[in-house]
Design a protein that fits this description.
126 residues; mainly beta; 1 helix; globular
């Protein structure tokens, strides 16, 4: 039914600019550039000019805006992604999605609404 040839995530996880460790909790907005990995807990909005990786033990309570996101943990908030959102089998997303491309692996949990920018542009041309 679905194409099993998965495209690789456009996030280079070999180069992480900022790491929030699993024993770290942050409260407040996070604004940054580059690739960020969150394995701890963050309560506040995230605005990135770059990519976000949320590890299996990572969680964010707040809205997230980034170029691309690979979610393996939990996000409770709305997501705006310029390129690709990848929900891995261990991910849980409670909130709305606005993205160009979405990959949802079997086992991922998503509760919310989804709007895909590419589909919206195609409809506008008709």
């Amino acid at each position: 039914m679905f194409n099993s040839n998965k495209k690789s995530m456009p996030i280079n996880t070999d180069r992480i600019d900022t790491l929030v460790g699993k024993n770290t909790g942050i409260e407040g907005a996070l604004t940054a550039e580059g690739t960020i990995r969150i394995d701890g807990k963050l309560k506040g909005d995230v605005i990135l000019s770059g990519n976000l990786v949320v590890g299996e033990e990572g969680s964010i309570k707040g809205n997230v805006k980034a170029d691309s996101i690979m979610l393996s943990g939990i996000i409770e908030g709305n997501i705006t992604v310029a390129n690709q959102l990848h929900l891995t089998p261990t991910s849980k997303l409670i909130g709305d999605i606005d993205a160009k491309n979405i990959i949802v692996d079997e086992g991922a949990i998503f509760h919310g609404n989804c709007k895909m920018a590419a589909a919206e542009a195609a409809v506008a041309k008709e």
